Amino acid sequence: MIETQLHDDVLEIVMINPPVNALGEGVRTGLDEAITGALEDDAVKAIVIRGSGRLFSGGADITEFSKPPSGPSLPAIIDAIEASSKPVVAAIHGMALGGGLEVALGSHYRVATPKAKLGLPEVTLGILPGAGGTQRLPRLVGVEAALDIITSGTPITGAEAAELGLVDKLSAEETLVEDVIAFARTLDAPRRTGDRSISADPAVFTKFEADNARRFKDLEAPRACIEAIKAAVEMPLDAGQEKERALFMQLVKGDQSKALRHVFFAERAAAKIDGLPKDTQLRPVTKVGVIGAGTMGGGISMNFLSAGIPVTIVEMAQEALDRGTDIIRKNYEATAAKGRLTAEAVERAMNLLSPTLDFDVLKDCDLIIEAVYENMDVKKEIFARLDSIAKPGAMLASNTSFLSIDEIASVTKRPQDVLGLHFFSPANVMKLVEVVRGAKTAPDVLATGMDIARKIGKVPVVAGVCYGFIGNRMLIPRQTNANALLLEGATPEQIDRVHTGFGMAMGPFQMNDLAGVDIGWHRDANRIETLQDALCAEGRWGQKKQAGFYDYDDKRRPTPSPVVDRIIEDFRAQAGITSRTISDEEITVRTFYTMVNEGAKILEEGIAQRASDIDVVWTYGYGWPRHTGGPMFWADQIGLATVVDALKRYEDRLGEGVTLSPLLLARAAEGKPLDR
After folding, report:
1. pLDDT confidence tier of residue 547, bands split at 50, 70 and 90
2. Sign of the Cα pseudo-torsion (456, 457, 462, 467, in order)
3. Least enclosed by CB within 10 Å: which of 268, 453, 491, 494?
4. Domain CATH code at residue 498
């Protein structure tokens, strides 16, 4: 866990705990012993701490949070580092995150590579830096910079850290060790961050919280971070640390932190494919083909281009191809205009794109993704054609949101090479990809699909074949009940308010208007069978028409629509329904609890590998609030018996086809979570 080497009069302490040098008990014990030994050794004049491999340290071992404390605590070790009578220098490369950065903050001096990442991301786990980070960072960089860094959790580079005064010296990575040892020899005495005092106008905190009210909405950890940073201004280090520790313990025991840690581990679990042979070899993917240059095809292409993978994009008409290519360029240039991309990077990506009308050019691609509209006949026609031209071993993927991968694969002579890669819109932004395993999808194809999704920066989840896979299937009972609730007496704004009040990014009808009310419409204005038909027949197709379930102004701001009220009233009259008062509780049960019930069915059927995979789908793909952990974790937290009792209470109103999941009923009766 720890190695030491004496370089004449400088002791080098190396933390070794791959893959991220987490500060688990073994590393902490080793650090404690090494620091103590260095202080007792007269030959040692200065101390250097660094991490082995590719980084300094990724921080604390999160798995220890739910275990009884053992070994020396991280705050105690960092205090000992700062109290050292001999100068201590942190040599930072790769990453110094969380507790790793706190070790560096406790050191007297810091040397980093320009591209190293330094950050305190604890807030993303619903906690705050608990080993002095909220006390020492403001003393080094000032209150305003510390507020930004700690409440956002976003790392800064070594070069940025040097500008803020967090880092004393920059060094090239290849000479970091030599440079730091040489620097350590020039130091005469420690320089303790905790000895500094800082001041700040109380209005700074008030303004910062007001400016970030929307970002911090419903979140406990950012506000606790602000309170802890206030303590750094108002108190000496030891008292501030006591305050920080009390806030940390309060958060770590809270529901939000448990939920956010669940999502953290759920994402990692989702990467594992159950039953995959250990010797499975990945297929090479060096060139990708995309069929369709529309919104999805263009967005999908950007993911690969940004990762340096050449893309051939195919369309049927030159106008559509040019329009799609232009949108890709405009998207890149918009990112560059915000300073997030260089002009050179834009050209590098665009130079990897080969637009064409020649379908046969796809024969050289290792992975071909179909991204045309949701029509089974069209998709089968495309895959039959692909089967005749794609090279042996090429992976053939559909971006379908609902349709059967098995039926699509059936028109090929290579169903083992076919899978689903369901990207979410906008595909160049949204992180989730459902990797759909067909009945005959080969293990190496599935594994390669998961791997390539991670390489392009996505969070992949394995899904089985059913209508809508995981995420969209769970939307069906929600939308069915939301539509029924409108006819029974609720309004679009009431239903959406319940959802956004819970923490969803948007409600069902806001989402309909954004996606397009006309999606799936039969396009016959004289055939009015549903509320959707009536809206579409009157040109209310959503935000793109400035009219859907809401009216929209030029800035796409929604207001309730009298026209929609009239359409709903007409439908009530036709159906003989008398409007009644709908409670928020009924909306919650019929739109949220029905999703949990459908998720349990998805588990029963093996469509999802584990309940936590469903949580990943919803937190990354549908705006489910991360601080509740996802729908399945949330249901476990509020109690499955509570969910079942409420569903039974409204069972006669849940709609045709909505039956209670046997798994949900069994787990509720047993008092066990859904995964057991």
Report:
1. very high
2. negative
3. 268
4. 1.10.1040.50
User: What's phi and psi for 228, nearest 5 deg?
Assistant: -70, -40
DSSP conformation letters of 615-665 = HHHHHHHS---GGGT-HHHHHHHH-HHHHHHHHHHTGGGS-TT----HHHH
Last residue of one domain, picked from the residues 537, 559, 575:
575
**pTM more than 0.85:** yes
Which H or E run includes 668?
helix 662-670
Look up residue 422 and give its two tokens: 């369901």
CA distance 450 to 462: 8
Q: What confidence score (pLDDT) does residue 71 get?
A: 87
Q: How far is 136 from 154, CA to CA, in rounded Å? A: 17
Write the CA distances from 259 to 236, 242, 250, 624, integer angstroms. 33, 25, 14, 12
Query: Do the Cβ atoms of 319 and 271 come closer than 8 Å?
Result: no
Residue 66 has pLDDT above 80, yes or no: no
Residue 75 has pLDDT above 80, yes or no: yes
β-pairing verdict for 2-7 and 288-291: unpaired
Dig out the tokens for 328 from the structure.
Answer: 């890709």
* Residue 400 vs residues 297, 514, 515: alpha-carbon distances, Å: 12, 19, 15
Weakest-pLDDT range from 47-51, 220-224, 373-377: 373-377
Q: What is the pLDDT of residue 676?
A: 64
Residue 66's Cβ-count burial label (10 Å; 0-12, 13-18, 19+) is: exposed
Select from 361, 370, 376 the least CA-distant residue to 419.
Answer: 370
Q: How many residues does the chain have?
A: 676
In a domain, 477, yes or no: no
Q: Does residue 614 lie within any of the structural domains? A: no
Containing domain of residue 422, as a range?
A: 288-466
The reply to whether 604 falls in a domain is no
Look up tokens 């089967």; give the residue. Answer: 387
Tokens standing for residue 468: 């809508």
pLDDT tens sequence across 397-445: 999 999 999 999 999 999 999 999 999 989 999 999 999 999 999 999 9
- Token pair for residue 495? 């239903």
What gap in Å lies between CA 286 and CA 366, rounded to an integer? 7
199-204 — which CB contacts under 8 Å span 24+ positions? 199/233, 200/142, 200/143, 200/144, 200/233, 204/143, 204/144, 204/147
Output phi, psi for 405, to 5 deg. Answer: -65, -35
Q: Is 280 exposed, middle or buried (0-12, 13-18, 19+ CB in 10 A)?
A: middle
Count of CB atoms within 10 A of residue 128's CB? 30
Give the number of other CB atoms < 10 A from CB of residue 351.
Answer: 10
Confidence check: pLDDT of 525 > 90: no
- Asked whether 49 and 13 are in contact (CB, 8 A), the reply is yes
Q: 35 pLDDT exceeds 70?
A: yes
Residues forming a β-bridge with 462: 435
Q: Does one domain contain both 239 and 296?
A: no
Average pLDDT on 592-613 reads 97
Query: Which residues are tagged catalytic?
Result: 102, 122
What pLDDT, in 10s, does the model give residues 184-238?
999 999 999 989 999 999 999 999 999 999 899 899 999 999 999 999 999 999 9
Give me the number of domains the chain comprises.
Answer: 3
Looking at the structure, tell me whether residues 408 and 515 fall in a common domain.
Answer: no
